[in-house]
UniProtKB/TrEMBL annotation:
This is NADPH-dependent ferric siderophore reductase. Gene3D superfamilies: Nucleotide-binding domain of ferredoxin-NADP reductase (FNR) module, Translation factors. It comes from Microterricola gilva. It comes from the Bacteria. One of its GO terms (molecular function) is oxidoreductase activity. SUPFAM superfamilies: Riboflavin synthase domain-like. Residues 5-106 form the FAD-binding FR-type domain.
Length: 277
């Protein structure tokens, strides 16, 4: 059996600015008709020149047309991906490591598994906006929930399509630090929700996951934990973005508001002050 992921050789088909900080790149390649897509927030690797790998989520895929869209976020020339994007032109060659629809292997690389939760909470910074956009587009018409998206500026509020019962809250950061717009807004919503629906005491099994030790033996916080499948519940929370802000929100949900950790998926996509591994 072939692996569920493999390398696809691609070239840049188009580059389209979406806002001051978001740019959509469409890739094309001879084998992209075999590109798969197993979950809404499907992770892939973009292989930049110099064999530098960066993780992104699929924004859209059209296998019949041999096209895949990836939305990039730019913050000046601070990293290899933004430097590549600043100089990229149509025809540039690189690689995508993505799902192979022909593999027959167990699908992997996605997190969104809300089960039959009655209320959805999505909280993210700009690095997870493309994933949120795809999640929203795939929700059933009767879905209900709240979405909080922290972005660099007011010009980065993109048009998103969501069911009528899902409220989208854009939080332009402007001069604030990362998380300073997102954390208080989400915390306030969680507190209001908990006052109406959540128990006063933490639920059974709501304790924090244990820490993990690094090579030096020092304990660090877990930055990524997702339930296999959310149980029937009032709430399913999907949190993604800068690790410090996201772990803080997860801690507030689980420790302070008694939400079962099996109802919370949180992903530290990146950590302030550290480069991606």
């Amino acid at each position: 059996m072939k692996p569920s992921y493999r390398l696809f050789d691609v070239t840049v088909a188009s580059i389209r600015p979406l806002s001051p900080h978001f740019t959509r790149v469409t890739f094309t390649g001879p084998d992209l008709h075999e590109w798969g897509w197993f979950g809404a927030d499907q992770r892939i690797k973009v292989v930049l020149p110099g064999d530098i790998w960066r993780t992104y989520t699929i924004r859209a895929a059209r296998p019949a047309m041999r096209e895949v869209d990836v939305d990039f976020v730019s913050h000046g020339l601070t990293g290899p991906a933004t430097r590549w994007l600043a100089a990229a032109v149509v025809g540039d060659a690189l690689g995508l490591i993505g799902p192979d629809a022909t593999s027959g292997a167990e699908p992997d690389g996605y997190v969104w598994r809300p089960g039959d939760a009655r209320t959805l909470l999505l909280a993210a910074d700009e690095t997870a906006v493309p994933a949120v956009a795809v999640i929203l587009e795939g929700l059933p018409a009767d879905a209900t929930g709240h979405v909080f998206l922290e972005v660099p500026s007011s010009g980065d509020t993109l048009p998103l399509h969501a069911p009528a019962g899902v409220q989208i809250n854009w939080l332009p950061r402007e001069e604030l630090a990362y998380g300073e717009a997102l954390v208080p807004a989400v915390t306030a919503w969680v507190d209001a929700w908990a006052a109406e629906w959540a128990p006063v005491e933490p639920l059974e099994g709501a304790e924090e996951a244990p820490g993990t030790e690094n090579a030096e033996g020092a304990e660090y916080e877990i930055l990524w934990e997702v339930p296999e499948q959310a149980a029937s519940a009032d709430l399913y929370a999907w949190l993604a973005g800068e690790a410090g802000a996201i772990t803080g929100l997860r801690r507030h949900l689980v420790r302070e508001r008694g939400v079962d950790r099996k109802q919370v998926a949180f992903m530290g996509y990146w950590k302030l002050g550290r480069s991606e591994n």
